[in-house]
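User: Okay, second chain of the day. Same drill as before: sequence in, structure tokens out.
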Amino acid sequence: MITEATRKRFDELVTRYPEKRSALIPMLHEMQAEVGYLSPEVIRWVADYLDLSPADVMSVASFYDMFHLEPVGGHMIYVCQNLSCSLLGAELLIQHLEARLKIHMGETTPDGRITLRRMECLAACGQAPAIQVDGVYHGNVTAEKLDEILEELQGGR
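Assistant: Same drill. Structure tokens below.
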């Protein structure tokens, strides 16, 4: 599961911090990028590597929305649900996404390509409603703009 190359990267990574445990979040990011999500095996491996308990690692991994504790699609779409976005149409965008992809928030398309998630705040109130797709922010989103984004994602681009 954990490659020798990954272990070497982590050996170098921990030298950048005054305490080994300070590398936890960067390690979780790297593991998620490599494995796809933070499985129980990954949580245990990181805990052992950093001399932490699995509960310590899990408390961090489960706190942040950016970490996935179960398999997710190849593309992640987060829809901001905070006040500004909600008032300016986030729920309509969610309905549009769910209808178009035939899944609900929190689910992944049957082909494994796209996962939908709500995000409490994307810090883009001035461009509400906002979404994040694979780490890229999109503001002033309309149903038409969503359709363009989905076409790109489903086309593999």
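The domain at 75-154 is CATH 3.40.30.10 (Glutaredoxin).

User: Thanks, on to the next one.
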